[in-house]
Design a protein that fits this description.
The chain is α/β, with parallel strands linked by helices. The chain has 11 helices and 9 strands. The chain has helices at about 10-25, 60-75, 80-85, 145-165, 180-185, 190-200, 215-220, 225-245, 245-255, 255-270, 320-335; strands at about 35-45, 100, 110-115, 120-130, 130-140, 170-175, 210, 290-295, 315. Strands 1, 2, 3, 4 and 5 form a 5-stranded mixed sheet that branches. Strands 6-7 form a two-stranded antiparallel sheet. Strands 8-9 form a two-stranded antiparallel ribbon. The protein is elongated.
Length: about 350
């Protein structure tokens, strides 16, 4: 079976297995499930030491290749196991709780390098009850334009570019090739393929972002200066954590996301508290921070960083509002399951 490219394959697969279980036991008047176990079978991957597609035939030493794959899988779904076990709470009709066990990031997972085949995470869902157990196998397809994989690429690209900056405070607005094509795209798959090609065609991280809080702007005495500097600091920490440990782990199991959210809210609260927009020279930075925006001509230097108008922008997983939406979606899915 194929749970597809949904946002949460473990939850969807568990639902499908539960449905099959109840269909098989529809003649029973009362069913009591003891546990639901989600375990990995095989991670067929195409990543090398850089976490990107390999350009060589084979990935060298098997143990080394497996370690690369596990690191990549951690960035891909890190935190999902804890999320399922802590937030999915289902009970039998008699009120007894059903134990949820998820170990998709098991250290024992079998990883296989396959350059030409489509990557897939194969896993099994086992439901145990008084009538025995039911096991179903699933495959989570991970083509190179899968949104989870693109999210990893965007996060690592952002982290590399931010770390390369020399300034003390780093408040990024992002840039990407094919920006106009991205704005004109209407279908979800078209958007993902444009993002993929833009990232793949990029030879270096230079030009990937503009630091809105350049040295000149960061020295301005402004009502929003302290809030924006704190926001830049918290954002840097969030990007680092998410790119290394995975989005789910960072959103639900680490302090970086909540600290970023609070700093972002505080920045807007400070901006809204101003009686006039003209009281702040930096307020325009909030209109484009963390968005993918059109790059400006070099002759403009940093004069546009705080303009109050931005013609267009694209919000990705690099923007706090999208992270907030992802968090709300996952909470909704787990509560709906419950």
């Amino acid at each position: 079976s194929k749970p597809g490219t949904g946002r949460h394959p473990g939850v969807r697969a568990a639902w499908m297995t539960l449905r099959n279980f109840y269909i098989e036991h529809e003649d029973k008047t009362e069913i009591s499930i003891q546990s639901i176990e989600i375990s990995p079978i095989l991670f067929k991957h195409d990543v090398d030491s850089a976490g990107e597609e390999s350009d060589v035939d084979g990935a060298g030493d098997v143990a080394e290749s497996t370690e690369y794959a596990r690191r990549y899988l951690t960035r891909l779904i890190g935190g999902v196991d804890d999320l399922l076990q802590k937030h999915v709470d289902i009970k039998n009709a008699d009120g007894n709780k059903i134990t949820i066990s998820s170990n998709l990031l098991s250290s024992e997972i079998n990883c296989r390098y396959a350059k030409t085949a489509e990557p897939v995470l194969e896993f099994a869902v086992v439901i145990s009850s008084e009538y025995g157990s039911l096991k179903r196998k699933y495959g989570w397809r991970l083509p190179e334009h899968h949104m989870y994989r693109l999210s990893i690429d965007l996060l690592r690209r952002a982290r590399t570019a931010i770390r390369a900056l020399q300034e003390t405070y780093k408040l990024p607005a992002y840039h990407i090739s094919y920006f106009e094509e991205l704005l004109q795209a209407t279908a979800d798959e078209e958007v993902r393929r444009i993002l993929l090609h833009a990232i793949r065609d990029e030879q270096e991280s230079k030009g990937a972002l503009t630091n809105l809080l350049s040295e000149r702007w960061s020295k301005i005495d402004d009502p929003l200066s302290s809030e924006l500097k704190l926001l830049a600091e918290k954002y840097d920490r969030f990007i680092t954590a998410a790119s290394q440990n995975g989005l789910f782990s960072t959103i639900f199991g680490a302090p970086e996301w909540q600290e970023l959210r609070k700093a972002y809210e505080k920045s807007f609260a400070a901006a809204l508290a101003l009686s006039e927009i003209s009281e702040s020279s930096l307020i325009g930075m909030l209109t484009r921070a963390f968005l993918i925006v059109e790059p400006r001509p070099l002759n403009l230097d940093d004069t546009w960083h705080a303009d109050v108008h931005e013609r267009s922008g694209v919000a990705t997983i690099l923007h706090p509002s999208v992270v907030d939406m992802l968090e709300a979606q996952v909470i909704y899915l787990t509560r709906s399951f419950n």
